[in-house]
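Q&A log
Question type: sequence-to-structure
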Amino acid sequence: MPLGGKKKKKGKKKPQQTKRKLRYGSSDEKYAQVKTLYGDRRLEVKIPGEGMRKAHIPGRFRKRVWINKDDWILVQPRDCDDRVDSACDVVYVYNGDEVRSLERCGEIKIERSGDEAEEDLFGDEFEELEELEELEEEETKHKKKTYEIEYPSSFTSSEPPSEVTENSE
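Response status: OK
Response body:
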């Protein structure tokens, strides 16, 4: 049975994921990590080496760009206020791939807890080692004992096997 209507046939548009060109901060812009979301387009950010600041999300980001806690953003302090703890405006929001690129370039330094730092040191190799150890443990639990029986050279005799040895492989 046909669904009818042109809009039904069109289907829903899917957003296309395109790789953006990495944007570096200029001399008056600073990298910051979101720590608290207050609502009404306001948030508190931590700028490495400077401390906490209040930030404002401009209207052009409204309903287009979503900012969450622990996201990395580019902020620009307001020119009208020379205080260290003055407010700043959000200029750009980085996604996960861009944050990793910035970290590799040395632009930002991400502080990690003990578990995350250990995981990053070893990367995928660490996870693979853990998986291998788990598999080996499972194999030893489910391993069955095998018996090797040595038969005499002639199978014609009706005698029981001469020697039975136990192997655990």
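Response note: Helices lie at 6-10, 96-105, 114-122, 124-142.
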